[in-house]
Design a protein that fits this description.
By secondary structure, the protein is an all-beta fold. The protein has strands at 13-17, 25-26, 30-34, 47-48, 56-61, 70-71, 75-80, 91-97, 104-111, 118-124, 132-138, 143-151, 157-166, 170-176, 184-190, 198-200, 206-209, 217-227, 230-240, 264-265, 285-286, 289-290. Strand 12 (143-151) and strand 13 form a beta hairpin.
Amino acid sequence: MKKLLFLVALSLLVGTNKSFAQTLGCLTPTLVLTDPTVSGNPTIPSVIDCSYNGYIMVRSNPVFNGALTQGNTPCLRFATSLTNMNSATNNSMALQQGTQAPQFVCSTCAVSVPNNSLFTLYWPGLTPSLPHSYSLCNIATAGNITYTVFSCYDNIPITSGTWNMATPNNCQSFTVPANTAIGAASFAISPAVPPAAIVQNNGNGSIIYDPWEMAAGTYTVSYTFATPGCTTTATRTLQIVNPFVGAGSTFSVATNLCPNGPCINLNNQLAPTAYGPGTWSGTGVSSNSFCPSVLR
């Protein structure tokens, strides 16, 4: 089984504004192919053959443009009255997706803005089915700190409140429940692939496929993002060549096979506790050997 090192790409982008009305417009995405089994999630070519050992992640890119005015993935916008209240010490905000420590994405997102400015933080690429929590940390003088959470694409509050008499060097945590309407991101692939080919689809603007479960051919992947105030689509093609043995079949062995690979001894593939060796049969099988080249 391949080890999935990069489960989800989350970005944190900070902007300041003197009102809560800084919504994002729609940014037409570009779909990028990457390998989430490799550290750094590097890009990969659109033609995949059986020498490739990773997964295929298709993800929306970019999440935002450089001006912080547009987006194309599920997103929450946090607007607070956190400021440098004494002009000397920063406040901070901590964000967490779900409950598992590896998904803790920002432990001290520093706030460094002019006095009396509201602090707005955009959190794109979220998984809508998970809860999202955030902590406001006041390191400055005591006072009331207000907060409001929106979708990034409209000005309808999801939740809001006031941290009354926020004392210095303390934090207050709040949670946005799972399945909060922050945008619907969906993928479709044509021709269709078996369920085993879809490794991960969390609705966060990315999907992961296993090429070893896909038959040879050219596939078109379509991405749609929709939320009040933003609807956008994109497509990308990828090609599986030099087809993988085992896709859509019931035959499996402990090692990956290429069509031009050598014959293997089937008896050596049996588990130590298996009865046998028994008699082997099937296409490409001779005695106790299987030759993948016969299936080409």
